[in-house]
Amino acid sequence: MRFSFYIGMLVLAALSPAQAQVASSTAPTQESTSQSIRIQAEGRPVARVNGTVLTDRDLLREMYAIFPYARQHNGGFPKEMVDNIRDGAMKMIVFEELVYQEALRRGMTVPAAKLEKAEEEFRGTFASPSQYQEFVHTEFSDSEDLVRERVRRSLLIDALLKIEVNQKSSVSDAELKDYYDKNPSRFEYPESFAFQTISVLPPQNPTAEQAKEGRRRAEDALRQAKATKTYEEFGLLAEKISDDDYRVVMGDHKLVERVKLDPAVVHALLAIEPGQITGIIQIEQAYTIVRLNKHVSAGKTKFEDAKAQLRKELEGKKTNQRRAALDQALRRSAKIEVL
User: In the predicted model, what is the mean pLDDT of residues 254-274?
Assistant: First the structure.
């Protein structure tokens, strides 16, 4: 279940009681720093949906839902993103209110047992009873009835979305297979290599002596690399002696398509088996030693292997389309005022 005020609770939980009180009761302002804007809310109206008032608290909670990382930065939103985040949050709170009102219009209800269980689950998201009471005091003026009403509201929103969006967004196996057959190139993959490197990089325009020293270092690196037996041993050596940026990830390049590799590297990799190490590969003035971890021939992902991810993708796309269609349909007959 998605509580529309759950993110707001998390924000308050991240602050001390005094800070939480300030964040909830101070007049709405935007405190700017060189990189972020911290928004405060007091319950000021920001929109009306068929006469129902939505406040800046509703808006701020949704902004945190869209950009939860702000909680890690004293509640600040990146300056360059704050307008887009706010616009997205406004659209979402209006959409949820329209969905809630539609659920009421249809006479939908929440069974008492389900409501009680949801309330219990919500209280369990707090670190302690005192933290929960602080939230109720700050957000709902100590009214458990208001908390219960917000939980009921969230359940009704979820119930209507399940009917109008989730249940209409499922994709059958036949649809998946049809998409797979009509889009064969999507499931083809190129020849690739997974490997690790240790590189010796001399300075630009090296002198003859510097070039000679670079070759000596490369030969010493190869001797040490040949003594390694595992991915981890080679990786730890790369962290210790390699000059390239991949040393911070144990020299690991993951899977790289053949066409993106230097021909000299491809030639060396084709001559060895996974787990083996090339000799020194010289590309201009740089020396590289490569450990092959995996060689993947070009091919096509089987339908059964692609089905789970494809279902997730197509159902996600269908869900977005259904939500957008529902939003448009509800807005046609609604009176919406952004204040």
Answer: 96
